[in-house]
Amino acid sequence: MCNLDRNLIFSNFQKCVTWRDKYFYIVDLGSLLILPINMYRKENIITGCQSKVWIVISYDINKKFFFYGYSDSYVIKGLIFIIFIFYKNLSKDKILNEDIYKYLNSLSIASYLTSSRSRGIESIIKAIYDKINFI
Amino acid sequence: MELNIFMNYLIKKIRSNFPILSTIINFYPLVYLDSAATSQKPNEVIYSQSNYYLFKNAPIHRGVYTLSNEVTNSVESVRLYISKFINAKFVSEIIFVHGSTHGINLVSNSWGRYFLKFFDNIVLTEMEHHSNIIPWQILAKEKKIFIHYIPLLNKGFLNISKLHFLVNKYTKIVSLTHLSNVLGILNPLLVLVSIIRILSNSVIFIDGAQGIAHCFLDVQILDIDFYVFSSHKIYGPLGIGVLYVKKSILNIMPPFEGGGGMVSDLNLTNGLVSFNYLPFRFEAGSLNTVSIIGLGHALKYILNLGLVNIYIYEYELMRYTLIYLNNVFGFILYGLYDRLGVISFNINKYHSYDISCVLDQFGISIRTGHHCAIPLMLFFCVFSMCRISLALYTNINDVNFLINILYKLSIFIK
Question: Which whole-number Å values give the CA distances from B291 to B2, B55, B134, B294, B380, in the listed order?
């Protein structure tokens, strides 16, 4: 899990032939998402997504960020994990300036993102942006 | 499981009347199971729309030339047809509105604002759609009055024993749904109306958005004061609905929206205005004539099929669907087995969006979410549910395919 990065995920998605492969890969990635039990709090809930989503971002002395999250939807969990991997090891400036939508589109997962779910993903990304900006 | 009704019901012919059912989605034939949100339309209704603009379009009630007269007659004959469909005593008791939501807002703003006073109360239920809660909440806030909600028993059935606590001499309006859009529960209107009439002098408003497509309706026998439904849920076009208001209530209701077509005299100097005859005083502006004509065709279509035939087919299909859905591992049903129209469910730990995501890949369209009934979601302690709806064109193959996919999904539980 530690050596997963955005390039590896991208190449794994290229290897997925059918939607079923992609679907189960997304669900599998979602199972790697963790959230400490004391973080299931109201202030960590992201609004705007129709499934329940918790996001927590912590940081160490060197301003390296650690991402935690959970959702009651398997697909959203997977998408959150992909978003976290995209932002892994990036500095605050890089996170605020990188275009994550370009990356998500390159994975060709548009069929999982109906318009209501896209709005949900947008609110998650915006919430992460706001949290990082605040730090 | 052999069901004789399927032999007699001309499902193939009926499906051929609905052209959209031959669409291909993601390389699979469309399996449309969201008729409770909006129904598909038969050829007759679709053709009537273009036919209108090709040959018939003209203003109604205003012109004296042939084209205008003809379209006026068409619209008024649909009004008469609807009044007979629901057995209203007078044709003027049928008001055309934009939809169920608009009808409810019309009554809350017109009747509600005029007749409700401080210390009165409104009674609703916990199973209502938001459109039958929010207009009343807005009114209650303005008038500073209370809303009581009839609670539910553990399967979602109305707790009628609580009525005498909630309905009293200060209750001015009781508004409830005919058929729940989530649970498929048919509320026992005859019983409820008779109890409410004993306990209070309130008027009774019934939200028939779902009920109109799945049950017989006789507004005189039910002795209700208001009934509203939308055309697009009963195989008619979008953009039009019907509000039935009992004559005695209609006579004393002030108009809600002002505009053209609803006054017979207007004097700017002394400010005197004479409102038009009923029901035109409630139909300000230009009516959606094309959709009204389409609705007439939709009602004609289902009456030609025979309401009894449709309802019995839907009943048998519902029974079949529930029996086989119950075999899906982790299937959680919300509501009773005795139901019409809709089946709301979840499968074990799956979020309803995950389920609909998979189903969509196979061309199966279901509805997920809170179904605009958040209080009901809270009652069952969930945030969202999956919902499938059965309509007169739903095939047993649709149901079998759905169950097949759900069954495969259920065995991949994480």
Answer: 40, 15, 27, 5, 38
**What is the rounded CA–CA span in Å between residue B242 and residue B207?**
11
Cα(B323)–Cα(B391) distance, rounded to whole angstroms? Answer: 18
**Number of Cβ within a 10 Å radius of residue B323:** 12
Tell me the average pLDDT across B11-31.
Answer: 93
Question: How far apart, in Å, are the Cα atoms of B275 and each of B110, B111, B219, B244, B259?
Answer: 14, 16, 26, 19, 11
Reading the block at residue B6, the tokens are 């399927």
Tokens coding B127: 């199973």
The verdict on ipTM greater than 0.85 is no
B192 membership: H or E segment, kind and range:
helix B189-199
Indicate the residue type of B212: I
Is the pTM of the predicted complex or chain greater than 0.95?
A: no
pLDDT number for residue B5: 57
Q: How many residues does chain B have?
A: 414
| Cβ separation B353–A27 shorter than 8 A | no
B358–A73 C-beta distance less than 8 A:
no
Chain A residues touching B410 at Cβ < 8 A = none
Which residue is closest to B361 within chain A, CA to CA? A19
Per the omega criterion (within 30 degrees of 0), is the bond before B279 cis? yes
Q: What is the DSSP letter of B9?
A: S
Report the candidate in A55, A59, A70 with the shortest Cα–Cα distance to residue A127: A55
CA A37 to chain centre: 19
Q: What are phi and psi of A75, to 5 degrees?
A: -70, -40
Question: Is residue A47 classed exposed, middle or buried when 0-12, 13-18 and 19+ CB atoms within 10 A define those classes?
Answer: exposed
Six token digits for residue B63: 């012109």
Contact A79, A117 (CB under 8 A): no
User: Are the beta carbons of B354 and A52 separated by less than 8 Å?
Assistant: no
- Among chain B residues, CA nearest to A120: B353
B252-263 mean pLDDT: 86
Question: How many CA atoms lie within 13 Å of B145's alpha carbon, on the beta-carbon side?
Answer: 23
HSE-CB at B148 with a 13 A cutoff on CA atoms is 18
Yes or no: say if A69 and A56 are a contact pair by the CB < 8 Å rule. Answer: yes
Q: What phi, psi does A16 have (nearest 5°)?
A: -75, 125
Taking the C-alpha atoms of residue B110 and residue B104, their distance in angstroms, rounded to an integer, is: 10
Tokens (6 digits) for B329: 């591992």
**Structural contact between residues B206 and B178, judged by C-beta atoms closer than 8 angstroms:** yes
- Smallest Cβ–Cβ distance between B353 and the set A19, A73, A111 belongs to A73
